[in-house]
Design brief:
By secondary structure, this protein is an alpha/beta fold. The protein is built from 11 helices and 8 strands. The strands form 2 sheets. It has a 6-stranded parallel beta sheet with strand order 1-8-7-6-5-4, covered by helices on one side. A two-stranded parallel ribbon has the order 2-3. Strand 7, helix 10 and strand 8 form a beta-alpha-beta unit. Helix 10 packs parallel to helix 11. The two termini are 22 Å apart. 39% of the residues are buried.
């Protein structure tokens, strides 16, 4: 992921402190408080990473078997593949079959770019129907969906966004990722869009990227968090940032958070399994969970490797 990337020499000057919780987040969580245990899912964005062969995939693993290996290490995937191609149900059914060895595994598909970036949500009914027809083949392996809007999708297009979201099926959770700066910089825009998501019972993606701190908005329209974390090659700040996220999620859990999806990105994806391992270890330690962590082939390549 290149979004929010800065030069390495700039990292020391970045303030990575998470913003305080907006009033919406506090209200959402306190009103949702229940006695059910927090559901936590940790994963990456793609399974087709050759860099992971010899790291978490056995040596000489073929591309066709990457998903078979991925599901042995993570319980979910932020499925970016569906952004670039519209896959037929038959293909998706094959992916589901590979994940059947892990009952709790979930695919979290990204809306097709033909919907979000090309048609920009207008006259996208046919493309949306095709997208849903494909992903429904995941069956019980289907997790939440996320709609990423482009950097140039401005608040001027709020009516189109609202109209599009209002016509989506309500039986599968949807999270929306905003990127244009004016969604966050102008209070009225921020209030309008997050209130709209709350009214529609849709989530807001929080993207934690170094060069775009405004996207770390901390708004939770629903008592569920979808976090896209972009690291910097295991720079010490990566670990400090994860630690702060774990502390915040623990606070949110105590307030009423019901689930969290934590997806790991790195500009160089060879490092994603290592930091994802750290994330799971910290969840286990700080929140008393028992998340299964990735299994590294070479000793010393995991948590602190």
């Amino acid at each position: 992921m290149e979004f929010g990337r800065v030069n390495p020499e700039e990292l020391a000057a970045v303030d990575f402190t998470l913003p305080p919780d907006p009033e919406m987040t506090v209200a959402t969580l306190l009103s949702a408080k229940n006695n059910k245990p927090l559901q936590v899912h940790v994963g990456c964005a793609k399974w087709g990473r050759k860099e992971w062969v010899g790291q978490i995939y056995p040596p000489k693993t073929k591309d066709a078997n990457f998903l078979d290996e991925y599901v042995k290490h993570f319980d979910c995937i932020e499925l970016n593949a569906t952004f670039y191609n519209a896959y037929p149900p038959a293909t998706i059914a094959k992916w589901k079959q590979k994940a059947d060895i892990r009952p709790d595994f979930k695919f979290c598909p990204k809306f097709s770019q033909s919907i979000s970036h090309i048609r920009r949500l207008k006259n996208a009914e046919e493309a949306t129907t095709k997208f849903y027809e494909g992903i429904m083949a995941f069956g019980d392996k289907l997790g939440p969906l996320f709609l990423q809007l482009s950097d140039n999708f401005t608040p001027k297009s709020f009516p189109e966004l609202k109209a599009y979201l209002e016509q989506l099926p309500t039986d599968v959770p949807v999270y929306v990722e905003l990127r244009h700066k004016d969604w966050f910089a102008i209070p009225k825009n921020r209030e309008n869009v997050f209130n709209m998501l709350k009214q529609l019972n849709m989530g807001a993606v929080i993207t934690d990227a170094t060069g775009r701190r405004d996207c770390v908005h901390m708004h939770l329209p629903t008592p569920h968090a979808f976090i896209r974390f972009v690291g910097n090659g295991l720079h010490p700040s990566d670990y400090a940032r994860v630690d702060e996220w774990i502390d915040r999620i623990k606070q949110w859990r105590d307030m009423g958070l019901q689930s969290v999806w934590f997806f790991m990105h790195q500009h160089d994806e060879q490092y994603s399994p290592k930091l994802a391992d750290y994330v799971s270890a910290q969840f286990n330690e700080k929140l008393g969970l028992n998340l299964e962590r990735p299994h590294f082939i070479e000793e010393g390549k995991g948590l602190f490797g």
